[in-house]
Specification:
about 350 residues; alpha+beta; about 55% helix; about 10% strand
């Protein structure tokens, strides 16, 4: 490939990337400080990932590769956001940078990338000076990317998928439905109402179609925190994600007609995964006002959920759908907690969960 062809491909890729991620930029349009802090932090993440690779060259090489791709992608996202705020096309910066690339050793390229990020913190007002710093950063970014043996195209594709999946509202019509090929008796109901009561003993009880299901629950902790009502979250998973091995077990509608689903998707390990994930998330929620603010659900939390559920069918759900399930699940939980019970109403068609008083 000639230099001109290579430059054209880079410009085309980054032009498409900049347009694709613009919708995910929800930071204030005039706030460059937050963007610069994000950029500097992500460059630090690149260096931290490289440090682990040097320290542990054998351990988890695929994980390190994925981590490096993510860090480079996040740094590019912030750099694109910074260029956008100054009205500078991202692709033009990288076109200039591609013409000035010089070979450097891997460790030196990382140091130079850090220095280039630090130089941007000065935020010069002169357009010519700013342009020079932007191009200098892009030069170092491409050198570090080359040293990590990663391509611009794969970084762009991965970051687009990540940011769209985490921050854009999902298209409900395109979301997966995991039991459409099964009979009604093996499907999560498309609409359901679960009644939750708390008795004078402090135990919570679930009823579905006027039949008690599951076991009476307490908080099972020394300092009461109302975890006794946590089945609300399994209802949210069922209604919004169309997935909940715990909910299927409660209503006895596992997909037993297909052994692979009965054992792998609806079996004991999947139930433990969901219960463990729910308990971990609840521990985080207790210190975040039970997620009364959408901003309390960080990408880090969503990423951990993704790792928890890897290998199960629910991994096909975008992280934005998980955010929706968490927000609606905790909104209903706060109502149940306040009223010491209530109706939990799930609608799979609308991918929603709501609350009604008893």
């Amino acid at each position: 490939m000639s230099g001109n062809d290579s430059n054209f491909s880079l410009v085309e890729t980054l032009g498409a990337y900049g347009a694709a991620v613009q919708r995910t930029d929800v930071l204030p349009a005039t706030d460059t400080a937050a963007v610069l802090m994000g950029l500097y932090g992500e460059v630090g993440g690149i260096m931290a990932t490289a440090k682990k690779r040097v320290r542990e060259p054998i351990a988890f090489p695929s994980d390190q590769q994925a981590a490096a791709q993510e860090e480079f992608g996040d740094a590019l996202w912030y750099f694109a956001a910074y260029c956008r705020r100054h009205g500078v096309p991202l692709e033009s910066v990288f076109a200039d940078a591609n013409d000035h690339r010089t070979p450097s050793n891997p460790r030196q390229s990382l140091f130079e990338l850090g220095q280039a990020a630090a130089a941007l913190l000065a935020e010069p007002s002169e357009p010519v000076v700013l342009r020079g710093l932007l191009v200098a950063f892009a030069v170092r970014y491409l050198a570090a990317l080359n040293a990590a043996q990663l391509s611009v195209a794969e970084i762009c594709d991965r970051n687009i998928a990540k940011t769209h999946g985490a921050f854009l509202a999902p298209d409900i019509s395109s979301l997966p439905n995991f039991d459409s090929d099964f009979g009604e008796e093996e499907q999560i109901p498309w609409q359901f109402c679960i009644r939750i009561d708390q008795r004078s003993s402090g135990h919570s009880y679930l009823r579905w179609n006027n039949v008690f299901i599951g076991d009476p629950l307490t908080d099972n902790i020394r300092d009461p925190d109302d975890y006794r009502f946590h089945d609300v979250f399994h209802c949210a998973h069922a209604a919004i994600l169309h997935w909940s091995p715990v909910f299927r077990a409660l209503i006895k509608q596992k997909r037993k007609s297909v052994q692979e689903y009965d054992h792998a998707e609806d079996g004991g390990r999947a139930i433990v995964v969901e219960e463990g994930l729910t308990a971990w998330l609840f521990a985080r929620a207790k210190y975040a006002d039970y997620f009364s603010d959408d901003n309390r659900i960080s990408y880090g939390i969503l990423k951990t959920i993704q790792e928890f559920t890897a290998g199960y069918e629910v991994a096909k759900c975008p992280l934005a759908l998980w955010r929706r399930a968490i927000m609606q699940g905790y909104a209903v939980f706060r109502e149940i907690r306040q009223h010491r019970g209530g109706w939990v109403v799930g609608d799979r068609g609308m991918r929603s969960l709501s609350f009604r008083t008893l």
